[in-house]
């Protein structure tokens, strides 16, 4: 409808900078996608968003198709991802994680720094990197068990290898139960499990699941979790 005099009413001008900043302020550390901030049908909104990025007032994380935007003061950091992974991984004794599983310990925003955070934790020795075949796993150093100095001093890898050979020859099998190995070697279980994980990392130990339904409670407690599954058995590479 025209006004008196024939002039059409003007559409109100949108202050896109104010709208974008307010929306991101409400979103906080969760951030927002581009479609929520600058609809494709509103090129002026996109231009404003790009200007805010250049000014450093807004931060963009992630690839173009999955990017999220944050106010600079609310943006997640690699440090937050490191702390989240460190804290949560330490709560799962002797468990091995895929990198993507470590990412579940982060918020969606912190997960943008997953690879960087994992690398930092490995470099600091907080996460141990293990391999099984071509698959890479991680475990927390504290999650291997509360090993005191006496246990560490008393643990003897050579004695474990001797015990493994004895069990292998007696049973005529290559895969022996981890609990039986600890008992024969008179090795602290936590120390043995930690050592087996290190040997697995080096390709000198190979874990097998075994039959969980036939395992005793003690044997189940001795199991090592790999890819979310408990492993009751181990085969050691024979050394010269």
From TrEMBL:
It comes from the Bacteria. This is Uncharacterized protein.
